Amino acid sequence: MERTLVILKPDCLARRLVGEVVGRFEWKGLQIVGMKMLKISPAVARKMYAIHRGEEFYQPLVRFMTSGPVVVMALEGKDAVAVVRKMLGPTFGPDAPPGSIRGDLGMSKRYNLVHGSDTRETAGRELPLFFKQGELLTGTAPDFGQIYDTTGPEPV
Question: Low-confidence residues of the chain, pLDDT below 70?
Answer without folding.
Answer: none
